[in-house]
Amino acid sequence: MIKMREICVSFRSERQEKLFGVSRDQILFDVSLDLEQGSCLGILGESGSGKSTLGRVICGLLKPDSGSYQLDGTEVYASRAGKKLLQNRLSVVFQDYTTSANPRFRIRDVLAEGIRVWERKSKEKIDRTAECRRLMELVGLNETYLDRFPHELSGGQLQRVCIARAVACRPELILFDEAISSLDAHTQVQIMDLLRELKEKLNLTYVFITHDLTSVTYLCDQVMFLYHGRVTEHIPVNQIAQTKNPYARKLLESVIEFA
Ligand SMILES: Nc1ncnc2c1ncn2[C@@H]1O[C@H](COP(=O)(O)OP(=O)(O)OP(=O)(O)O)[C@@H](O)[C@H]1O
What we know:
By secondary structure, the protein is of the alpha/beta class. The chain has nine helices and ten strands. The protein has a six-stranded mixed β-sheet with strand order 6-7-8-3-9-10, sandwiched between helices. It has a four-stranded antiparallel β-sheet with strand order 2-1-4-5, with helices on one face. The structure holds adenosine-5'-triphosphate (ATP). This is Dipeptide/oligopeptide/nickel ABC transporter ATP-binding protein. Pfam families: ABC_tran. Belongs to the ABC transporter superfamily.
């Protein structure tokens, strides 16, 4: 489904030696990955290692300096058709569910944003009331919440709404950028169970960006470690205990010590 080869990204450096300097800081170095349909890839790394930058490349928001990014054989950044293909297939769920839902919208209007995308894609007219009910049921929320505003829901409930909005446009791939990190541990498990269930039901592919090793082992089938913008390891999750990666070892030891 996704094939990335030697992706490099740099940003204009803040420390320019000349007045009109053009020096750049490289953030991603030759990142390559393959993602099969139906799989779940966890991207782990310390703060600043380039996870979200890679996420922005994956979701079509940041054109890399060099490298190839193909979706089902089509080069994503080479043409408008490539970007369009990606837009039609991908949804994103961000960490900050409080700001990703417009506070002036009722929940039904938040969901309508995703439903409209599906209407445009499919060129079908959808019964929005019925679709909102279906989506609420899909993410385990009571349909009476449809008339509430975001601040009238708990963090976990609101993140469920954001997940419902993400699946409303019937994507094949969903990118989660620290999407459960700010929830309490109990709610995180509930949301991860929901994500597992949706993945099976809707045959979805996930990319899951996180600091949290536990959620990766719970949800993902493969894990990629980024360190200072380079992939240091990309392994199946069931081999994580044997990893030599120092960052992964540190995370593993902290989980084991904590347990
Ligand atoms: N638009 C930008 N312009 C300049 N530098 C940027 C930009 N976006 C990110 N960076 C820099 O790129 C580096 C990687 O940032 P990124 O957000 O990808 O890391 P991360 O691994 O997701 O970190 P965190 O876990 O803290 O979110 C950081 O040093 C950051 O300051």
